[in-house]
Amino acid sequence: MSTGTYSDCTITVTDTAGNVSSTLTLTSFSIVLKQMGGSIQSGSTLSLSTTVTTLAGTGSSGSSNGTGTSASFDLPVGITTDGINLFVTDFRNCLIRQIVISTGVVTTLAGTGSPGSANGTGTSASFNGPLGITTDGTNLYLSDWGNHLIRQIVISTGVVTTLAG
Fold first, then answer.
1. What does the pLDDT read at residue 1?
2. Please, what is the Cα angle at 55 between 53 and 57, to 5 degrees?
3. Which of 16, 75, 123, 143 is packed most tightly, with the most Cβ within 10 A?
4. Cβ proximity of 31 and 45 under 8 Å
5. DSSP letter (8 states) at residue 151
């Protein structure tokens, strides 16, 4: 086993083009490496001492767009990023929400707010319990749990289509 204690480390997050989207300074943390089966595995213990802040959400259920803690969600379960925005599946609100990382501004990218399975653009499309989500930087791909569908959203236009199911 190997243990190290470190301080004053800065982590910089960049997108694929090399643009910096955020930085995090860690003032004190430790890493423990354990040998398992002949190889070193990291991540066995990782203790970070830093400040945690709320980017968006009131902490109570709701479906309001807004900035930071004036926005609300009802069971946000899936999240992905393009390096500038976070895209969140708001399960009980049946919405796909977009959060601008630098400002915390929350908007509805797609969904009516009521269960349904309609393809369409933006808030004319509907979902029923959107769950997992990922992106290729141009499109979002998500599982629409209650409809048993895989859906695609073009990020720039909000156009929702069904890919499978």
1. 46
2. 110
3. 143
4. yes
5. E
User: Residue 113: exposed, middle, or buried by beta-carbon count in 10 A (0-12, 13-18, 19+)?
Assistant: middle
Task: Check if the beta carbon of residue 55 is closer than 8 Å to that of residue 67.
Answer: no
Residue 40 has pLDDT above 50, yes or no: no
Which value, to the nearest 10 degrees, does the dihedral of the CA atoms of residues 152, 157, 100, 16 take? 70
**Residue with structure tokens 């500038």?**
84
Task: Using only the alpha carbons of the chain, give its radius of gyration.
Answer: 19
- Of residues 151, 107, 109, 108, the one with CA closest to residue 129: 151
Residue where the block lists tokens 């791909």: 141
Would you call 148 exposed, middle or buried from its count of C-beta atoms within 10 A (0-12, 13-18, 19+)?
exposed
The answer to whether 84 touches 92, Cβ cutoff 8 Å, is no
Strands lying side by side in the sheet with 20-36: 2-14, 20-36, 39-49
Q: Which pLDDT belongs to residue 17?
A: 72
Share of the chain above pLDDT 70, in %: 72
Q: In 3-state terms, the chain is what percent helix, strand and coil (to 5)? A: 5, 60, 35
- Whether 21 shows a pLDDT value over 90: the answer reads no
What's the pTM?
0.70
The mean pLDDT value of the chain amounts to 85
Structural tokens at position 151: 């859906």
